[in-house]
Amino acid sequence: MALVNVRRDVTDAFYRYKMxxxxxxxxxxxxxxxxxxxxLSSVAQSLARPGSYLIKYFGFELGAQTNIDPxxxxxxINGAHDAAKLQDYLDxxxxxxxxxxKCKNPETDVHIKDGRILLDCKACGQRTDVDLRLKLSGFxxxxxxxxxxxxxxxRKAARRAKQNGKNGDKDSGSGGDxxxxxxxxxxxxxxxxxxxxxxxxxxxxxxxxxVLDDEVKVNEDEWAVDMSAEAVKARQKQLPDxxxxxxxxxxxxxxxxxxxxxxxxxxxLGVWIQEQAEAKGGIDKVDDIDIYLKAKELGIESKHRTVxxxxxxxxxxxxxSQIGKRAGMLKQIITSERHEKALLGGTERLIASMLExxxxxxxxVVKILQLYYHHDLISEEVVTKxxxxxxxxxxxxxxxxxxxxxAEPFLTWLAEAEExxxxxxxE
Length: 427
Ligand SMILES: [Zn+2]
What we know:
Elements: E1 3-5, E2 18-20, E3 24-27, E4 34-37, H1 40-47, H2 51-62, E5 75-78, H3 83-97, E6 108-113, E7 116-121, E8 127-129, H4 135-142, H5 152-166, H6 200-223, H7 229-237, H8 241-244, H9 264-280, H10 288-297, H11 304-313, H12 319-333, H13 337-354, H14 365-374, H15 380-388, H16 397-426
Antiparallel strand pairs: 1-2, 3-4, 4-5, 6-7, 7-8
Helix pairs in contact: 1-2, 2-3, 2-4, 6-12, 9-11, 11-13, 12-14, 14-16, 15-16
């Protein structure tokens, strides 16, 4: 299926946000002629909007009747309409109802609050208004989902979109689960919404989160790396032959937990990354996809221990400005709790290695965890467990204790945000 950039004015082939090109089929004839948009659900999913918004938008633009809730996924516009023309209209829909008005990022949630329709941007954190004079705005306001709950079909769609992203198919559905429109009572989502009580901790975290959002925005272009199978393949083609060769590996699991043997492949990856960094004049100049391909060449691109190596090699004392740029690649590899734990373990080791030169490196712990969380690299469950169980698996226990201690403000904030959310849900 042909993919196009969500923003067609962006010509970069590595643009992260993709969707299927609209496909149509004309059926019937005469007065009964109609256009079936055969992949409307998929496109709607990529945009994290209900299909009804898209079809209705086409209907308004074309002055044609549409169905907004087809039981069989047959989305219909009365009359004969050309797919290319619909694609042009879709650009309008995306500009008006998807893209952040401030930074033009398509990863936004719709929030309805006090009769306004707000786009909540995951990239820059801004909330911007949709023009209420647009016909579709009226439709959106009239067809709000039930408070705080998504309907079943939408939840399913969000899950599917998330899975698609995980399969490396395309990343456009990332964050699908928390996408779309929860009209929660105060209109806040946990990512960005903080408690309104203004104790010192909340203020501190809030201030840091603001800085964080600004940084994320600065990094936006760089972290928008397309790690889809297609993009990786395309990149692979550009590489010299020796690099394309795959090592023949036996399928044995490498000493998974082990501190002992079986490290050679991971060492090779680590050494290779360090050499590349040296040759290119800094780790930040080593490309994500090249790192990923190297791991793949070694046959360890899906292993949790790879994450342990990466945390210690792709980051350095500038880690807080590096996480955003590497989040796309890391997300591709981090697929389980074990991977998340490896990320935290590798980070502990990185921190320990920085202490000699930067004794105050503990100060960065909150920010690091915030960034990991913000970019979906660690889940609440895993980081909470990590925080409550000191371990000397990765670093000596005195360092470990200090890291846990330094993490406390973040963990407290997380626990409070969680409480608030469950209160909201039980209302
Ligand atoms: Zn934005």
